[in-house]
Design a protein that fits this description.
The structure is a single chain. The chain is mainly α and about 180 residues long. The chain is built from seven helices and no strands. The longest helix has about 35 residues. The relative contact order is 0.17.
Length: about 180
């Protein structure tokens, strides 16, 4: 049970220790992969554990960069196809970020499933979807209450909340059995 909540706790502590958000954004995939990988290293399928952790970092950066590139080109494609007025521009940005974050979570979990032992993938995808819905809910709160943003730009706070809640979802997925035993007690 401790492993389930240790990963998001490590993410929160690491993000708080980094002096500026601009420096943290470059390291978010690293922070995510290390927090999930190091806490759940016993669940690695690879015999060489350091190599497995390294592969999880590479996968995390590949998905992060890949989704950034795909989102950029999809944004350009939407601008070419439609004529967007000022009010629709904000909605389009929210839709791109939301879709990109949701796809990133599922794609990263798909790649992590090759490295880590996962008992029930259906449960895992459900937990990832629920945690992503919590991210969207948290971002709605952040956009309504300026005092909750702590001086962080909205996209940066989205990314930080993404890695916190996704590390929780991934840890719940990998430690499902211990989590269910705790709920049954």
């Amino acid at each position: 049970m401790l492993r389930t909540f240790l990963s998001p706790l490590l993410v929160v502590i690491t993000v708080l220790l980094i002096p500026s958000i601009e420096k943290a954004l470059m390291f978010l995939p690293l922070i995510f992969a290390l927090s999930v990988g190091l806490v759940n290293f016993k669940r690695l399928k690879v015999n060489n554990k350091p190599f497995g952790i390294f592969l999880s970092v590479v996968q995390s950066y590949a998905v992060f960069i890949g989704l950034g590139v795909v989102t950029y080109f999809f944004d350009e494609l939407l601008q070419d196809i439609t004529i967007v007025n000022q009010g629709d521009s904000a909605f389009k940005g929210i839709a791109l970020v939301t879709l990109g974050g949701f796809l990133a979570a599922h794609m990263l979990f798909y790649f992590f499933s090759f490295l880590f032992r996962i008992d029930n993938k259906r449960f895992s995808y459900l937990i990832i979807t629920i945690c992503y819905a919590v991210i969207v809910l948290v971002m709605q709160v952040f956009s309504k209450n300026e005092f909750l943003q702590f001086g962080v730009e909205k996209f940066a706070s989205f990314l930080i909340s993404w890695i916190i809640f996704m590390s929780l979802a991934f840890s719940l997925s990998m430690n499902r059995a211990s989590f269910m035993r705790t709920l049954e007690k």
